[in-house]
Amino acid sequence: MKISRFHSAALGLTLFCTTMAQAHMPYMLPTTFDLGAKGDHVTVQAAFAEDAFLPEVAMRDAPFHLVAPDGRDVPTGPVTHLRDLTVFEAAIPADGTYRVTSGQRAGRKGKMFRQGDKWAMRGEGGTLPANVEQVDVQSMTLAEAYVTRGQPTDTTLKPSGRALEIQAITHPNAIVAGSGASFALLFEGKPLPQADISLFRSAGLYDGRKVVAQIKSGTDGRFALTPPDAGTYLILVRHRGAAPAGSETPYRSYTYTLTFDAA
């Protein structure tokens, strides 16, 4: 029996509390990535989803904001939370490249255990191995995209030096289908080597998950991706490890996504 997309979404919501960290990815999706010379705003969709850009759970409690071309944090317009997605408008008053970001969002708390040299979350399938140490963990999510009015600028591409993030080495507005784009994966401002990275392309309602590439970051944290054709893409990376001193839990499960458009 074929399960409808809507039935699948309902099942996903039922399992949300136990599988969120593994199955769902956060994303930010602006209506356009290049406003040209006269655009003055973008409308942004934010949600959690199993398939890139097909919303299932609204992104609540996120400190949404923009980073302006001069490096200042600027607020968005009013944020509306629907059941399946969150929507807001953001003013783009001046030329340059803006970072549209969910901000670092603290999510649910759960249990994590180690299998060999990898951390796994409770509820990610299979049975809990015997005699494993479990620790408390909190999910941390950050989703970002870049939009440009007029000529592209580079200030907002500089990493924050906090938590898990991807630095765009190739300017997002310069990514072209069929050509390689370079990035750097960082954790607390330092290169994160040998991390798993997935590239998704936007999927239609019945297309299913579209995984374009699965690679690892290099020893210097650098990696390159080649979008095969024009469209909207999402880079996903996860990292689990000890939390900073004073955190609510001793460990954290970080998820970062970067949305971009290939011309």
Summarize the structure.
With 263 residues, this protein is mostly beta strands. The chain has a single domain, classed as Immunoglobulin-like (Sandwich), CATH 2.60.40.3880. The chain has helices spanning 5-14, 16-23, and strands spanning 25-30, 34-36, 41-49, 57-58, 65-67, 73-74, 79-81, 86-91, 96-101, 105-115, 118-121, 134-149, 164-168, 181-187, 190-191, 196-201, 211-216, 222-225, 231-242, 251-262.
Outline the structure in words:
With 263 residues, the chain is mainly beta. The chain has one domain (5-262): Sandwich (Immunoglobulin-like), CATH 2.60.40. 7% of the residues lie in helices and 48% in strands. The protein contains 2 helices and 20 strands. It has helices spanning 5-14, 16-23; strands at residues 25-30, 34-36, 41-49, 57-58, 65-67, 73-74, 79-81, 86-91, 96-101, 105-115, 118-121, 134-149, 164-168, 181-187, 190-191, 196-201, 211-216, 222-225, 231-242, 251-262. Strands 2, 5, 6, 9, 10, 11, 12, 16, 17, 19 and 20 form an 11-stranded mixed beta sheet that branches. Strand 19 and strand 20 form a beta hairpin. The longest helix is centred in the N-terminal third of the chain and has 10 residues, at 5-14. The radius of gyration is 18 Å and the shape is globular.
Order of helices and strands: HHEEEEEEEEEEEEEEEEEEEE
Beta-strand percent range: over 45%
> Which spans of ≥5 residues are poorly predicted at pLDDT below 50?
1-22
Fraction in helix: under 10%
Overall, the morphology is globular
**Structurally, how many domains make up the residues?**
1
**Highest CATH level, the class:** Mainly Beta
Q: How many separate helices?
A: 2
